[in-house]
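Posted in: Structural Biology > Protein-Ligand Complexes

Title: Requesting predicted complex, NAP in pocket

I'd be grateful if someone could produce the 3D structure tokens for the following input. Sequence and ligand are given below.
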Amino acid sequence: MTMPHTELASVFPKIGFIGAGRLGCALAWCLDQKGAHVHAVASRSADSATALAAGCSACAVMSPQQVADECDLIFITTPDAAIAPAAEGICWRPGSSVVHCSGATEVQVLGKALAEGAEVGGFHPMHTFADPVTAARTLSGCVITIEAGEPLSQRLSRLVTALGCTVNHLPAGMRVRYHASCGFASQFVNVLLAEGVGAWQSWGSTEQAALAAFLPMLRGTIASIETSGLAKGMPGPVSRGDTHTVERHVQALRDFDPDMASFYRALCRRSVPLAQKAGRIDDAQAASIKAVLDTAGDAPE
Ligand SMILES: NC(=O)c1ccc[n+]([C@@H]2O[C@H](COP(=O)([O-])OP(=O)(O)OC[C@H]3O[C@@H](n4cnc5c(N)ncnc54)[C@H](OP(=O)(O)O)[C@@H]3O)[C@@H](O)[C@H]2O)c1
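-- Reply #1 --
Done. Output follows.
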């Protein structure tokens, strides 16, 4: 839902960015499109700052201090390692709000801003910003994780809603664990598919052919999770209690790539409680599968 311009502007009249990279550009452009006033940008290079400003209606390139002086909400969208030095190089003022967009970086890196009277927080879009134009087009619909006290948390939540995104609130102290967890829904999907592709390449097929076959299956799995949940939506031999097939899989993979076989066994072990939770296998079947996983192929890890 697009928030009327005046309402969005009443939440944060002037928004500024320090760091004009992939996320900074995408977020600034989206906010501008939704009627927010992206007022100012600073970056390490003038070219990057100018590119961000060019995608907004009325955004000027300034120094980081000017951005902080003139804006009500300042996004620090530098690489993670540059967030603390960037924040420490600025004199902050009470009444302004400062957030960073890093998933793994603690909000305490903005401690100088907090000490000087600004409100601070974390604003982490659970989205991939590989290319800012594509990311700006696809941001709507994603979840944005906010870690902030009140009233900043509520004001940021209104911004998230205006972007067409959903708010996730994160308690303090959970940031690194939270960010690690996101890997299971992003980069580790690539890792899992790379294992499968490796098996196809072993008989002379290609990554392209394997992915053409895997991706429709992956979409089906996602649809099944959406409909039935993680446990009931899980397919595969463990979910059917098919101990013999699991054993033969491990043996076949061990002959081809022992590391892949070990990884496969670890994944199967993690599949057993899900199959039990779905009520598909009983305790005896679970024990039988675990025993096979410990004994099939190499010695247990
Ligand atoms: N990329 C993603 O998928 C993604 C997803 C979620 C969260 N994030 C988070 O978003 C933040 C930005 O990531 P990104 O991928 O957008 O990084 P990026 O593409 O590397 O952009 C970072 C920008 O910050 C500028 N910069 C570097 N040091 C600076 C400094 N000291 N002062 C001012 N500007 C500085 C860079 O300089 P130039 O002016 O030289 O270009 C660059 O434009 C990070 O905290 C990251 O963890 C990223």
